[in-house]
Design goal:
heterodimer; A: mainly alpha; ABC transporter involved in vitamin B12 uptake, BtuC; 13 helices; globular; B: alpha/beta; Rossmann fold; 4-stranded antiparallel beta sheet; 10 helices
Chain lengths: 339, 253
Amino acid sequence: MKKTSAGIGQIWNWKITASCALILLAIGTLAISLGPIHLGFFDILKTLIGAHGLEGQDRTVLLDLRLPRALLAALVGAALATSGAVYQTVFRNPLADPYLLGAASGAGLGATIAITNSGGNIYGWLPIFSFVGATLAVMTSFFISGRFFAEPNTLLLSGIAVGSFATAVQTYLQQRHSNALRPVYNWILGELTVANWSIVSWSSIYILSSILVLVTVSKKLDGLLLSDEESFSLGIDPNRLRMIAVAAATLATATAVSASGLIGFVGIVVPHLVRGVTHRVTNRSLATIALVGASFLVLADLGARTILSPAELPIGVITAFVGAPFFLFVLRTRRVSHQ
Amino acid sequence: MIKVADLTVKMGGRSILNDINLEIPHGHWTCLVGPNGGGKTTFLKVLLGVREYSGSLQDNGVEVYRNHKRNVAFVPQSPEIPTGMTVAEYVALGRSKVDGWGNETAKSRQFIEEVLIQTQLYGMHQRHVAQLSGGEMQRALIARALAQEPQLILLDEPTSALDLHHQISVLNNIEDLKSRGVTVISTMHDITLAAMYAERIVVMHEGKTLLDGIASDVIHSAELRTAFDNRINVYTLDSGRPVIVASKDESKN
């Protein structure tokens, strides 16, 4: 059998990652310049580098509204996409999403408790309660499953059980406090309207450090696609790696959920999109998945605030409305290319 | 030398392996044979270092449990097949131990190409592993093990799902590994093939080793017949090669 001149090639081409970083920059710039008030590219640049740029209302719109909102969208998008990809690898399940282990329902319950007990000042307590709710739910799933490291599916099932329980309590609370239905509903659909520098700063610490951990171990994550015996023979401690990966992905998800509510579909569509377009399943693409997730949500948020301007669409509607058909298109083309 | 002393493995209160004492020399092909449930696969996993045990199991004087310093390749009977991964990517995973995860050099990629050619997978290296036939998948597993450049390779029933042609092809690949100085330990249901390729055979039955020794001696032993409840017959071909077949008549006795 003869070799071709191309050989087997590299497993991952880092030029793809670099290109996605540039695309994110371009989309980010577009997002902060567009809106009811148009801001010029050079004015934005001058303002950001501290030179004499935008002033007055325009400056406020850029620095206090659009920039933190775009940054939060990028952080949340990166967190959800990366966590989704990692969960899919850890559980060897292409349908795994970041909310799998009860993070969404736990956060939902936490948010509902905050909304029903806040007496008006919802947003002060909501992120804290939903973060605690998400983290507690996932920890409970871990605690109940016990034998997680011997059988990842046990954790998955206990996550579903904990999620159902949290949802039941949440529904009970909503029934008791019908005035809370609308704010809870808005939160479930996901929203970035509350973005400010305070939320951006605390969420960036958790999300960026989680992503850093995940990207650091990303090359080894490919070993989790094999059986535990095979990955051990290739130099991996599968239990330890799974624990690190799930902990980091859960921290990123809990932070994303508490900062912006439940934004669906990003965690499934973005990893599959990157794998579909690049024809690579390796987790070396994790940094790229984070960048594409960030771009996807910045773009979705741009749509959410401009399509029905001055009204806003829930961002979850945009991610599903755009994401689902695009995802189906990728699935279809991938299947055809395989045949 | 791999030295096994008073080795016992328990799962859920039940003994899977019971007080095993054995010495397995390096540089040879040793085959574990015996009926299902005899503990062959568990013993392979113990040799890999992933199963807890009491007693002692030392490879060149080092206890093997959770020892990542050894370079041991493992070829499972039912591998986890990663969806969407190409054959080239799958085989490249074998370099992780040598190069570090995700750090293949150009030289390594060249080595992977050589391995793909050797296992007749080169033309299909861009295909997904999930699309491979049973024989091709087995070759992909062997190729990954070859890419690992192991000191020891453990194979669990490497030929069980293959037709005769592919059985020989895979066994030749393994023999080639052995000729490079790699120690081979495998389980195999087909004792005729085991006797044809392995130098040493260990008979395992109900978690114990009944006999270990040179293949030609073990084939004609009473212990082998005992392990299979006297339900086997051993014939010798004109070439002197032994053939082991199931015996319907003797099972009634």
